[in-house]
Structure formats: structure tokens, C-alpha cells
Specification:
This protein is 24% helix and 18% strand. The protein has 333 residues and is of the alpha/beta class. The protein has a seven-stranded mixed sheet, with helices on one face. Strands 8-9-10-11-12 form a five-stranded mixed sheet, with no helix packed on it. Bound molecules: zinc ion.
């Protein structure tokens, strides 16, 4: 990890407003989990006239912290990277409070899962697995069920006031130019936002500062995700500000390493199937993710599914029974 200490997350104080650059402040929500790392980082960009990026989960302490941080400021816009429940839900409150419009690519695209697609993934659950089991699940819910499905962590109630498209200036003001950089993959509506005056990019969950991103089909798409990583790697951002994890000041190198990691996973899956015959998704996960804690094997299975969908689509892998891609299918080269 590089960069000044204030950019790291060694010293997280929930609700505190941290000045992380001349034009950027960050408030971290108290929703730490195995998916959110130390919690959701909400960014306030600009001084006086500001935009807020990903207001975060509906947690009273976070809402109060944002209200205090924004006192005396004019919120010009609310930018949403995507609609997982630790990113967008508080936008409704902030928009009502400030009258500021919301900006995003669009609402979360609801894609029907093919029947039985994820049957069998529960065998990767670890005993006494805590409630949060899906990407970005906020840990705020007292009413959380023992197994929260992926779909339940999506904020389907969010729809932006303004739909942004790639390269478009979403908002412009004195010293404050925010441009949309669409990055489908983690979700189909994922969007990063660049703060032109500081040559920095707010990466949402597309690039995280601490871990690889879960790409969960059918909305999550590995091919799009890798393409979107290449898109960010080719940019010339001085800093990346992820929602979860510390700032990165080595953008092209770091993001290219994420691309390489995904390509290596693809190759590992093909090599495994070639070397030892057909395997199911849980079997692939257990072999390839030995270095990863078992509690992360279930989300890892989602990313493996993402790789397999791409491989089957490319004709490099097939299901032994000729059926659709699903967790319990036997995959072969
Ligand atoms: Zn997410």
C-alpha cells in the first residue's frame, strides 16, 4: 500500500469527516463486513458547492454524520456508482433533504436467474456463517435473515433523476467538474466518476482498494468487467478512490494487475479442467481458492461462474450434460 497515511484506512473513525485531498472529504459508514471491508466510504467533492458520491446505506449514524458534514454546503448533485444496498439507499433521504438531483447510468437492471443456476452453492457455506452473505450486504439489519440472498442486497427502489452516459460531464461548477466513466461488470449499471480538477477517479466497487470485486451473474458480467478494468487501466488518473479500501496512487499498474489476476483465474480454470477432468463450481472453488478464507468461497463461486459463462460463451469450456451454466453442472474442456 502506498500513499500518505491519511489515505490508508488504518485509523477508521466512523462518522468523522476526513479531508483526504484539497477537494475531497470522506465519511465512512459503520457497516464493516467481509464484503465492505471497513465500511462504505461516502465522498463529498468540492467546497461550498459540492457533490456527494454514494451516500451509502440507511444507517442513522451515517445519515447524521453526512448531515453534519454537509451543513452550510450546497449539494449540487448526488452521484451513484451502482445500486448495491451499501451504496445508493441513502440517496433518497439526501435528495429529499437537499433537493439535489441524483445521477447514475440507470436503475439496477433486474435480470431473472435461469432456474436452478445457483442450486448447490450452499455447500460452500461455512458453519455458523454470519448473516451477511452477499456482495456489499450492509450489516445494519437486525432483521437480517440467516442467509441473505444476493438479490436482497440490491436497492431496486433507486432510479436516477438524470441518466448519465459514458464520457459525459455529469456536473459542472466552479472548480468542480465531474465526468461519468461507465464501467459495467460488477453490475451492468456501474459507473465511475472522475473529478477532473484533481485527475482522480471514484471507482465505486469496480476497483476496490483491498480486495478483488465479486462479479455475480447474471447481472454481473466478467467479460464486461475485464473490459471495464482495461478502460480504467488505460486512463491517466493520479488517484483512485474506491468505496471500500484505501486510495490507490498507482492506478495503471494496480488496475492492470487486477486484469492479469482475472486472466490468470480464467487460465487456471481451463488448466484444472484439462488436467483432472470435469468439475463442478464448488470443486473448482475449493481447488483454486485454497489461499482464500472459506467464508469467502461462496462469493468466489459467483466470480467463478462469471468466468465459466465467458468460457462457455467462447467455446473453450462446456457443460458435460450440454445444459446451461449452473453451479452444480460438471464443466469440461
Ligand atoms: Zn457493489
Amino acid at each position: 500500500m502506498s500513499g500518505p497515511e491519511f489515505r490508508t484506512l488504518d485509523d477508521v473513525v466512523y462518522g468523522r469527516v476526513d479531508d483526504v485531498s484539497p477537494g475531497v472529504r470522506r465519511v465512512i459508514a459503520k457497516n464493516p463486513s467481509k464484503f465492505t471491508y471497513t465500511g462504505t466510504g461516502t465522498y463529498i467533492v468540492g467546497r461550498g458547492d459540492v457533490v456527494v458520491i454514494d451516500p451509502g446505506p440507511v444507517i442513522d449514524s451515517h445519515r447524521d454524520a453526512l448531515a453534519a458534514a454537509l451543513a452550510g454546503e450546497t449539494v449540487r448533485g448526488i452521484l451513484i456508482t451502482h445500486c448495491h444496498s451499501d451504496h445508493s439507499p441513502l440517496a433518497a433521504w439526501l435528495a429529499a433533504e437537499t433537493g439535489a438531483p441524483t445521477f447514475a447510468v440507470g436503475p439496477h437492471l433486474v435480470v431473472d436467474e435461469p432456474e436452478g443456476m445457483f442450486d448447490g452453492e450452499e455447500e460452500l457455506s461455512v458453519p455458523d456463517e454470519p448473516a451477511e452473505s452477499s456482495d456489499d450486504a450492509a450489516s445494519s439489519g437486525d432483521d437480517a435473515e440467516p442467509e441473505v440472498k444476493m438479490e436482497e442486497s440490491v436497492d431496486t427502489g433507486f432510479a436516477p433523476d438524470v441518466a448519465v452516459s459514458d464520457g459525459e460531464v455529469a456536473l459542472e461548477g466552479p472548480g468542480l467538474t465531474m465526468r461519468a466513466v461507465t464501467t459495467p461488470g460488477h453490475t451492468s449499471n456501474h459507473c465511475c466518476f472522475s473529478f477532473e480538477e484533481e485527475r482522480t477517479l471514484f471507482t465505486g466497487d469496480h476497483v476496490m482498494g483491498w480486495s478483488t470485486t465479486v462479479v455475480s451473474p447474471p447481472d454481473g458480467d466478467m467479460r464486461s468487467y475485464i473490459d471495464s478494468l482495461r478502460k480504467v487501466a488505460a486512463r491517466d488518473d493520479a488517484l483512485l478512490w474506491p468505496t471500500h479500501g484505501p486510495c490507490r496512487d498507482d492506478a495503471p499498474t494496480y488496475v492492470q494487475a487486477l486484469v492479469d489476476h482475472r486472466l490468470a483465474r480464467t487460465a487456471q480454470i481451463v488448466d484444472l479442467l484439462r488436467a483432472s477432468g470435469p468439475h463442478t463450481v464448488p470443486e473448482i472453488v475449493r481447488v483454486l481458492y485454497t489461499a482464500v478464507h472459506p467464508k469467502l468461497h461462496r462469493p468466489a463461486a459467483r466470480s467463478v461462474m462469471g468466468h465459466l459463462i465467458e468460457l462457455v460463451d467462447d467455446g473453450r469450456v462446456h457443460t458435460v450434460d450440454g445444459g446451461p451454466v449452473r453451479v452444480a453442472a460438471q464443466f469440461a474442456v
